[in-house]
Request: fold
Amino acid sequence: MIKENILIKDVLSKVDIDSCPEKINLHTHTLCSDGSLNPIDLLKQANQLGLEHLAITDHHTLHAHHIINTWLHDAHIESISTRLWTGIEISALLNGCLVHIIGLDIDINSKFIEPYTKGEAVTGSDLLAVNVIKAIKKSNGISILAHPARYRKDYKLMIEQANLLNIDAIEVWYDYDFLPIWMPSVHICKLINKIVDSTRLLKSCGTDSHGYSLLGR
Reply:
């Protein structure tokens, strides 16, 4: 696998309405959590699709990344051109609402992220969004509020509250209609994009794939 000298912030700075699912997909799941594909098959599919950047963001586990790292090392794979970023999706409490926060480009061996990698949501103060964000940052990662318009509280409020807690990015482009072939829900996504444009926040996108195709959810 080719690892360019590029930062995840550089990738996020390029995200727009046309990035996903064919160029950049930073929200996917494997059978290590609630997805359908094993990690290696998911990476192979991403490579076949010509994806430039992929993140595997299983819920509360980093096991997929350990599997892939072993496979790449043992098989000496050099034919994978897709850049794989480490990732995890963590349940958190933000303004009294349960949300999902994605951590990208984290150190998978960090002691700070370790409490969130046990396969289930944490409890107590560790569940608070402020502490999830801190754990991601201490693990050298980027924190992202996933699908802000899926929660029971207004997306504008959730973005505002996340911003106050120094989150790094918002998942702007998302398919809230769960179409067979992923497409961003243009109206709501453009409203979210406008809000993010008025802040310091970066933008992310992803299919949130749980099935057998990275072109859909």
